[in-house]
Design goal:
The protein has about 140 residues and is of the alpha/beta class. About 40% of the residues lie in helices and about 20% in strands. The chain contains five helices and five strands; from the N terminus they run E-E-E-H-E-H-E-H-H-H. A five-stranded mixed sheet has the order 3-2-1-4-5, with helices on both faces. The protein is globular and about 35 Å long.
Length: about 140
């Protein structure tokens, strides 16, 4: 089963392959087509706020006027945690459950570290959810 966690920047997407825990950033105009293929082939795509931002941005990267279509399941941790309200930011939600920021490549640029950090925070929230330890918004529990 291929599970990926992703976060879009303005001209890139960071992707974590959960199986082998490899992280890579794909850049528009360089290797975005490879990223789109990986995303569309995944059995599960995990995002934070992907329904509102990431899938639309990926659609733009792919020349579409609509969100990128996926062949697998999309697990949006913002929606899972907060719907029907907008809720908190990724760092705010992550901070509810974790005291320390995730480890990222210290040799990467500040921008790349930010993308990797967002991916790793999303990954940690996904693990909590899979373990049944990510509470949903009270309004979403009815």
């Amino acid at each position: 089963m291929s599970i990926i966690v992703l976060d879009c920047g303005q001209r890139c997407v960071g992707i974590l392959n959960v199986k082998d825990m490899t992280f890579r950033i794909y850049t528009l105009g360089i290797d975005m087509a490879a990223a789109i293929s990986i995303i569309q082939a995944a059995e599960e795509v995990v995002t934070y706020n992907g329904e509102i931002y990431d899938l639309k941005k990926l659609g733009e990267f792919n020349g579409l006027a609509e969100p990128l279509p996926l062949s697998g399941r999309h697990s949006d941790m913002r929606s899972i945690r907060w719907d029907p309200i907008l809720g908190s930011s990724l760092s705010g939600t992550y901070g509810e459950f974790f005291r320390y920021p995730p480890k990222v490549n210290p040799d990467a640029s500040p921008y790349d570290r930010n993308i990797e950090s967002d991916v790793m925070m999303t990954f940690e929230l996904w693990k909590l959810w899979k373990a049944g330890q990510l509470p949903m918004c009270r309004e979403n529990q009815h």
